[in-house]
Write a structure and sequence with these properties.
Chain lengths: ~290, ~625
């Protein structure tokens, strides 16, 4: 049968807008609270930690939750709650660096590739192809494992491996913008190329850029935690959620809260950031090419 | 009203609104429609009038978020608004069918043409055809009904057909269920002029042969008059006038209808000044307590603002929502007749083009090479000249290469061969020009695009867009603010618009900003690529007047690329007719439009919609 077409002349933008998938407000509120809390802990955590997160108490190891230790203690007698609070900063800084590198390099190379086309596009895209062919996390495991590990090395490797996806996504978005009349108008007006690319086009695709960065952030958080869990990321002793997960594994039956807490911290944080990214996209993208 | 009961379709008090969270916005504020058996009615309105939504409400195809707040849609003794979606779906396609504007997305690209029809034949409620061979035979017969006599066309995929053919296939599919009512939503708008006329004739023909009820939705009164028996004029979500086509064309009885008729650029004569309706269409909620047209009406008084007028009966079958019709009827009539009188034709300067033509293109060809290595000849050996302060029309259908030529002139495309001389800078290949030469060309020629929605960067304010245009072309930064105000003033916008973003502007206003942006460069020639075809008629006239004023004020030259002969008549001094990449006719506007020599031009002119009477 004949399918309905969108009637651009009569359907107003708001009709289209609400037909888009929207993030329910309650999820958004919860996500903002979660992210806000974790950022707060990363900054002011050291002031409110009930105990020194690195202080071992070998007389009180693997303790269950109690009024003194709300989440119990780990096998070395360190307060789990304090360690979770102390882990907030590494949960933010590493993923942020990965996402930010992706945002910068992705925008820079992606727009260049999409707008200029030709040789620049060819070279950048073959590079991206090459990076896509590499199994990211596996490479990270190998490199970090061989070189000897460390949080910052893991962040560096993930930052580089993460760029490819952003470049491809942003290239696609830039390609779409490049043929629009506002870009052509700027060209005929003699607006410099860099200004068209990094002012006009970037601003128009920025919702995609930021939503992608949020997604990168969440993925990097999970990837860094995985590496730490495997003992490749953060070093023994560091307060990092992934590492805590492996260190506290032995408590699974005696003190489930002590193991689940770092796991839930990772899950909630990653989910919240993703939801906020979705919201940014819904809120600021104009749905469709014409922006009506 | 005895006739009401026997009506085929009866819509009463239909109100539609869009609900987004806690906010509700009225889209249609009370529409009554009546369709008799074997009758064609037209719903006419500009964008935002609610004409499409009203029709979609009948068949339950409202977009997500739009709901009927009140009203009844009586068809076959049942209220369609109360029936379950499943029941409405049963009626849709079998008893009431719909075809849409866009022939390019209406068909499933994966299905051969006859399949679209066979599918409906198989699932229709009355007498479904389950036998494949039989369905196929019937489908072929249905294609013949819509004028596709070539049986091989049935096995082609939609992308292998032209827009007109696709619209025919869509129509055949819509008719396959033998509906009692067909709703055609702007069925000819996306098509070329010559095809447009064919499709409208076909619709009329099919409607008469089948004795079917037809609801035509259109923004074009000329189209409505040529097809429909009766016309419903919709403005800002409410009906302002209902009348038979003939009576309405003879004498409109609502100031809006009059304005719409007058602002329609005439194809057969050039007018000294186009009658435009100032302002733009308000939202239904803004005019809930008064006459919806009051803000733009020249006859407005306190009575118009006192309450929402309803349709009142006049002689014959005429109804109008104008409360002052008794007082102003003779005045309106005079205005209408005044516009119909052969108005003084602006004397055109046909003297030979200046020696220093602003644009001289000789032997321009453009070949696009497709992905598969296939060549598309967009332009073949085209030679076009534009003199100083001359307005030249470039007319042709889609695919004629008219837009490609305009793009070559401003350097957005590079011609494959040929010479383009813009203001003394000759170029065979734009990409080999020096920076200085490009700058010189840019300062001579600028372009205004068709789509007012995407030709401005929606993230920056109007002021920022104009400032950029000024500054990159060497205008001192400190004087920019004053100049921006001047530019806005030139195109008839208040200086305060500098701080607005495009989303806050109407289509006409955006197009004014685009024009202001080109003026920032102070060009001598402006390439206008269908600059008014995306605008409503009432706004179209405003913009065409603006183009004319600017030409006189600054001695501008235009290359006016358009498919619309009426527009060409109003703005062009001289016309080139482009057909499949070649210029087939050239000459002064009057000569080409009144005494076309080439067979293609004659066909083009014959296809302008005219009323049936």
């Amino acid at each position: 049968m004949v399918a309905p077409s969108s009637d651009a002349t009569t359907t107003k933008w708001f009709v289209r807008r609400i037909s888009l998938r929207r993030v329910p407000p309650i999820f958004m509120t919860m996500s903002v609270i979660v992210v806000g809390l974790i950022v707060f802990l990363a900054i002011f955590g050291s002031l409110i930690e009930p105990y020194d997160p690195f202080q071992q108490d070998l007389l009180d190891t693997s303790a269950s939750p109690s009024p003194e230790h709300w989440l119990g203690t780990d096998p070395l007698g360190r307060d789990i709650l304090s360690r979770i609070i102390a882990g907030a900063d590494s949960a933010i800084i590493g993923p942020f660096i990965v996402a930010f590198t992706g945002l910068l390099a992705g925008s820079g190379l992606g727009i260049l590739s999409g707008y200029m086309g030709g040789t620049a596009d060819m070279v950048i895209q073959r590079l991206v192809d090459f990076m896509f062919a590499l199994p990211g996390l596996l490479i990270a495991i190998v490199i970090v494992g061989v070189v000897g590990g460390g949080y910052w090395l893991a962040v560096l490797v993930l930052s580089i491996l993460n760029v490819a996806g952003g470049v491809r996504l942003i290239r696609g978005a830039a390609l779409e913008q490049r043929v629009l009349p506002y870009v052509e108008a700027a060209r005929t007006l003699g607006v410099p190329r860099w200004r068209i690319m990094y002012l006009h086009i970037w601003r128009n695709i920025s919702p995609i850029v930021f939503a992608n960065a949020a997604l990168d952030f969440a993925l990097a958080l999970v990837a860094l935690s995985s590496l730490s869990y495997l003992g490749l990321g953060s070093q023994p002793g560091e307060a990092e959620w992934g590492r805590m997960l492996s260190e506290n594994q032995s408590l699974l039956f005696s003190n489930p809260a002590g193991v689940l807490a770092p796991a839930l911290a990772i899950v909630f944080f990653a989910t919240s950031v993703t939801i906020i990214g979705d919201w940014i996209y819904d809120r600021f993208s104009y749905g469709g090419r014409t922006g009506r | 009203m005895a006739t009401r009961d026997s009506s085929l379709l009866d819509v009463r008090g239909l109100e539609l609104e869009v609900v987004a969270g806690a906010t509700r916005k009225t889209l249609v504020a009370g529409v009554d429609l009546r369709l008799e058996r074997g009758e064609t009615i037209a719903i006419v309105g500009e964008s935002g009038s609610g004409k499409s939504l009203s029709a979609r409400a009948i068949v339950g195809l409202l977009p997500t978020g739009v709901v009927a707040r009140a009203g009844q849609v009586t068809f076959d003794g049942r209220d369609m608004l109360q029936e379950s979606p499943r029941e409405v779906a049963r009626v849709r396609g079998s008893s009431i069918s719909m075809i849409f504007q866009d022939p390019f997305t209406m068909l499933n690209p994966l299905l051969r043409c006859s399949k679209h029809i066979e599918e409906v034949l198989k699932i229709r409620v009355d007498n479904p055809i389950t036998n494949r061979a039989e369905a196929r035979r019937e489908a072929l017969a249905r294609l013949v009904e819509v004028g596709i006599t070539d049986p091989t066309a049935a096995d082609r995929y939609p992308f292998q057909l032209s827009g007109g053919m696709r619209q025919r296939v869509g129509l055949a599919a819509a008719l396959a269920g033998d509906p009692a009512v067909l709703i055609a939503d702007e069925p000819s708008t996306a098509l070329d002029v010559t095809t447009q006329a064919e499709i409208l004739d076909l619709l009329k023909d099919v409607q008469q042969k089948r004795g079917m009820g037809l609801i035509l939705i259109t923004h074009d009164l000329r189209v409505a008059f040529s097809v429909a028996h009766r016309v419903y004029v919709l403005y800002a979500g409410s009906l302002v006038e209902v009348s038979t086509s003939a009576a309405l064309e003879h004498e409109p009885l609502h100031p809006y209808t009059l304005g719409l008729l007058l602002s329609e650029p005439a194809a057969d004569r050039r007018l000294d000044r186009l009658v435009a309706i100032d302002g733009s269409v308000p939202g239904p909620d803004e005019v809930a307590d008064r006459c919806s047209f009051a803000s733009r009406c020249e006859w407005v008084t306190d009575a118009c603002l006192a309450g929402k007028p309803t349709l009142s009966k006049l002689e014959g079958e005429r109804e109008t929502a104008c409360v002052r019709i008794g007082e102003i009827r003779s005045e309106m009539s005079a205005a209408h007749l005044g516009a119909k009188r052969p108005v003084i034709v602006t004397p055109l300067d046909h003297q030979a083009r200046d020696e220093n033509a602003i644009l001289r293109a000789t032997g321009v060809s453009k070949v696009f090479v497709g992905r598969a290595g296939n060549e598309v000849h967009a332009l073949r050996n085209v030679s076009i000249e534009v003199g100083l302060n001359e307005s030249v029309g470039l007319v042709g259908e889609s695919g004629s290469g008219k837009t490609t030529f305009g793009r070559c002139v401003v350097g957005l495309e590079t011609a494959t061969s040929g010479m383009i001389d813009v203001g003394g800078i000759r170029s065979e290949d734009y990409s080999t020009l020096t920076r200085e030469q490009r700058t010189a060309i840019r300062k001579t020629v600028q372009i205004v695009f068709q789509d007012p929605y995407s030709s401005l960067d929606r993230t920056e304010t109007v002021g920022a867009a104009l400032r950029e245009a000024l500054v990159v072309n060497g205008f001192p930064r400190d004087g920019a603010k004053r100049r921006i105000a001047e530019l806005l003033d030139l195109v008839g916008l208040p200086a305060g618009y500098a701080s607005r973003r495009p989303a806050a502007l109407s289509g006409g206003e955006r197009q004014r900003v685009s024009i202001a942006r080109t003026l920032a460069v102070e060009p001598k020639l402006i390439v206008c690529d269908e600059p008014v075809s995306a605008l409503d008629v009432s706004v179209q006239a405003q913009i065409l007047n603006l183009f004319r004023d600017l030409k006189d004020e600054f001695g501008l030259s235009y290359l006016f690329v358009t498919h619309d002969l009426a527009v060409v008549r109003q703005v062009a001094d001289r016309v080139y007719v482009l057909y499949q990449g070649s210029v087939v006719e050239e000459g002064p506007t009057e000569q080409v439009l009144d005494r076309p020599q080439h067979e293609y031009t004659q066909r083009l002119i014959a296809s302008i919609p005219r009323s049936a009477v």
